[in-house]
């Protein structure tokens, strides 16, 4: 990516809160990610709402730790954010039935996220959707929750992220995003790296401080 391309990409990212780079990951690596992710998740059995999402892959296979910390997407994300990304976790996503739906929401965390399509993803099998520019209007959308249905299908800023294997979307956690149900039953897998670093740690610290304050008030 040359300087002119980087300038255009960052402008789009700053305006919309996300960008998609087509054919970013070669098919050989897409297949390797699929193979390794399925190997480490094969014996996991969950029945909660988000049972199709497995976080912490970097703790299960060093290959994913290498991707999280030194993948080719890291310098691109650094350009988009204007600062060095702080790794948090790597995740594997599947969506095999129409019950695995994530409703519109934004994450109150500063940083960046990358999501690599491992299969062809489209509206029919539950691709990602974004609201362009919503990261600039956090107050307007802070009420949204991933587990609570909200219909934004007619919103003028709606963007459907249909992608082919190897396409990669870079987005801010504060950009409103969601994924619909898998209506056609086709295989729909994705790999995600989350970079929120210190903000994530600070949230935990603030929670601990509040807990300590609550304890001291009772003492």
How many domains make up the 3D coordinates? 1
Which bin fits the share of residues in helices? 25-40%
Q: What is the chain-wise order of helices and strands?
A: HEHEHHEEEEHEEEEH
Sum up the overall morphology in one term. Answer: globular
- Give the CATH topology: Jelly Rolls
Total E-strand runs? 10
Largest beta-sheet details: 6 strands, antiparallel
Alpha-carbon distance between the termini? 59 Å
Global Rg: 18 Å
User: What is the CATH level 1 assignment?
Assistant: Mainly Beta
CATH superfamily: q2cbj1_9rhob like domain
Helical segment count: 6
Q: What is the architecture at the second tier of CATH?
A: Sandwich
Taken as a percent bin, the fraction of beta residues is 15-25%
Unreliable sequence segments: 215-219
Strand order of the largest sheet: 1-8-5-10-3-2
Task: Describe, in plain words, how this protein is organized in 3D.
Helix content is 33%, strand content 21%. The chain has one domain: Jelly Rolls, CATH 2.60.120.620. The protein has helices spanning 3-16, 27-41, 62-70, 73-81, 138-141, 197-218; strands spanning 18-21, 53-55, 89-94, 102-105, 112-117, 128-131, 158-161, 168-171, 177-179, 189-195. It is globular, with a radius of gyration of 18 Å. The chain is built from 6 helices and 10 strands. It has 219 residues and is of the alpha+beta class. Helix 1 crosses helix 4. The strands form 2 sheets. A 6-stranded antiparallel β-sheet has the order 1-8-5-10-3-2. The chain has a 4-stranded antiparallel β-sheet with strand order 4-9-6-7, with no helix packed on it.
């Amino acid at each position: 990516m040359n300087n002119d391309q980087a300038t255009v990409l960052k402008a789009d990212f700053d305006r919309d809160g996300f960008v998609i780079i087509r054919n970013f990951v070669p098919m050989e690596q897409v297949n390797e990610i699929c193979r390794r992710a399925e190997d480490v998740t094969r014996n996991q059995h969950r029945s909660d709402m988000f049972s199709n999402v497995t976080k912490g892959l970097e703790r299960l296979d060093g290959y994913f730790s290498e991707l999280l910390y030194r993948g080719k997407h890291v310098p691109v994300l650094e350009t988009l954010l204007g600062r060095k990304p702080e790794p948090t976790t790597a995740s594997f996503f599947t969506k095999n039935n129409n019950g695995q739906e994530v409703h519109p929401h934004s994450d109150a965390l500063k940083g960046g996220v990358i999501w690599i399509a491992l299969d062809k993803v489209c509206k029919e099998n539950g691709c990602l959707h974004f609201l362009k520019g919503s990261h600039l209007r956090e107050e307007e959308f802070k009420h949204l929750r991933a587990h609570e249905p909200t219909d934004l299908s007619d919103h003028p800023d709606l963007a459907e992220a249909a992608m082919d294997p190897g396409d990669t979307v870079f987005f801010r956690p504060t950009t409103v995003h969601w994924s619909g149900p898998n209506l056609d039953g086709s295989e729909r897998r994705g790999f995600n790296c989350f970079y929120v670093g210190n903000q994530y740690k600070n949230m935990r610290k603030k929670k601990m401080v509040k807990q300590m304050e609550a304890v001291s008030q009772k003492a």
